[in-house]
Amino acid sequence: MSTPAPSPLAVVDVSPETAPERQEEVLTPEALEFLAALHQRFTPRRDELLALRAERREGIARTGTLTFLTDTRHVREDPDWRVAPTPEALQDRRVEITGPTDRKMTINALNSGARVWLADFEDASSPTWENVVGGQRNLIDAAARRLDFTDERGRRYALRPPEELATVVVRPRGWHLDEKHLRDRERPVPGALVDFGLYFFHNARRLAADGTGPFFYLPKLESHLEARLWNEVFVFAQDYLGVPQGTVRATVLIETITAAFEMEEILYELREHAAGLNAGRWDYLFSLIKNFRDGGQRYVLPDRNAVTMTAPFMRAYTELLVRTCHKRGAHAIGGMAAFIPNRRDPEVNARALEKVRADKDREATDGFDGSWVAHPDLVPVARESFDAVLGDRPHQKERLREDVAVEAGDLLGVDTLEAKPTLEGLRNAVQVGTRYIESWLRGVGAVAIFGLMEDAATAEISRSQIWQWVHTGVVLDDGQRVTPQLVRRIAEEDLADIRAELGPEAFAAGRWNSAHELLLRVALDEDYTEFLTLPAYVLLP
Questions:
Q1: Does pLDDT of 2 surpass 60?
Q2: Most buried among 26, 316, 322, 506, by the most CB within 10 A?
């Protein structure tokens, strides 16, 4: 029996007056047909996998633990399989820069001197329709080398010669987010398929021809079955456009605690398309809280800034990631340096840069093949750390790290931390959460807050810590118990400070009240909200 034709997709709740510039160039009839085919074929399985997430969470709530899978032991114990050889464009990834796909950022990131640019439709992007369509338009122009930009001061930005540009690796949205502006007769299309599909449709043939893609980062995976679904998407998409199988390469962010127990299985499912794994921080901690929120004091995290990558359970996770990647021939990519250099304060700048340097030195010494930065000024800092270890080599996959032996308990050893929750940590969680959400609701997903470049993962860990501390009755360093009343008082004081700092007119022009209310809702509701961005997305135009 032949497969029925996909239902046509429609753009909804977008008027001609509010449509993004050049929308018709992105949403061509042919591109929409491709998205409809992806939607028809893969969204039902996406739905099943989201249901499996909920079932697994229920199991964790019952048992209070996680372990390595028994039914995939044969994958882990088979010494022979490897991921496909790495394309030349992804051999050297010693410094990667991340950021949203607005026009200025696209040019600056490509020109930054980093080897790779993570072009972000996920945590560093607020998924307004303007950002979704405009980001795709900018990436099409970048692939065609016709990208430029002039700011309001008349300063012009243009791309450097092709050989000096970073390789683009696109991060689509996670499986859980839908795109409300694009739907068939029954339902919206998953945002992951929209972001992947539009980029792939418009750019895959061109990128494949010159060996620069298409390449992707895959976020928020919680199991190898979700990696298998992405692999099926890649196979279908390559066949659809006549691109050779194995052209796509994907790097998976290991940013959930469940995925940390399935690293080898994830690489195995994607082995013809796998490029590597990445070790995050805030999303990983957010996932720990989300999955073990019923686990009591054993799983209570201290202030987020006190949980560094040198904490024993975080070190177990990163060292296991390096060993897993190199055992299977994949790149191991380290975490983010989020510091924003401040040229007006040399002393603060020097201290912060020293911390960045120490962090990147540790990653390079541990065996990582590259790492992330959030600001172009940090590219030479990270490069220096990796140059010192790699020299002229593109990576260090030959370092198999066979000295690493990680057990399930090592990954779950939150109670090995000596730091405890503090009043200042609670206040910071409220402040950062409110400021980030307000910016996100205005369509800005990468936000400078207190000298750091923050994205949605920061807001997720902030509100999750508040929820955890309230529901476990944490007592802070000053003797106060964390209660809804204490959180509300701190949030009200912070909102008053913001209003006084900005003035009534600027305050009213923002989304501060909405941000304040949403933070309190997701931090204090009895039922834990799976993702902050789900209720926040409802508030976007």
A1: no
A2: 322
pLDDT digits (tens, 9 = 90+) for 221-238: 999 999 999 999 999 999
Active site residue ranges: 171, 455
What sign results for the dihedral spanned by CA atoms 90, 96, 100, 101?
negative
Rounded-to-integer distance, Cα 313 and Cα 108, Å: 36
| In 184-292, alpha helices (H) | 191-210, 224-241, 257-260, 263-269, 282-291
Distance between first and last Cα of the chain: 42
CA 295, CA 354: separation in Å to the nearest integer?
A: 36
Under the banding of pLDDT at 50, 70 and 90, the label for residue 4 is low
Judge contact between 164 and 111, C-beta under 8 A: yes
pLDDT band at residue 183 under the 50/70/90 scheme? very high
Using the predicted structure, report yes or no on whether residue 3 has a pLDDT greater than 70.
no
pTM: predicted TM-score of the whole model, two decimal places: 0.97
Residue with tokens 């009043």: 423
For residue 252, which phi and psi values (nearest 5 degrees)? Answer: -100, 130
CA dist 280 and 335 (Å) reads: 5
pLDDT band for 344, please (50, 70, 90 cuts).
confident
CA angle 364, 368, 371 (to 5 degrees): 80
pLDDT tens-digit map of 465-513: 999 999 999 999 999 999 999 999 999 999 999 999 999 999 999 999 9
> In angstroms, rounded to a whole number, what is the distance separating the alpha carbons of residues 135 and 103?
8
DSSP track, 112-179: SS-SEEEEESSTTS---HHHHHHHHHHHHHHHTT--EEE-TTS-EEE---GGGSPEEEEEPPPTT-EE
d(CA 494, CA 488) in angstroms, rounded, equals 10
- Asked if residues 80 and 325 have their Cβ atoms less than 8 Å apart, the reply is no
Angle among Cα 51, 54, 60 to the nearest 5 degrees reads 145
Helices marked H in 367-422: 379-390, 408-411
Quick check: 491 and 431 in contact, CB under 8 A? no
**Beta carbons of 275 and 331 less than 8 angstroms apart:** yes
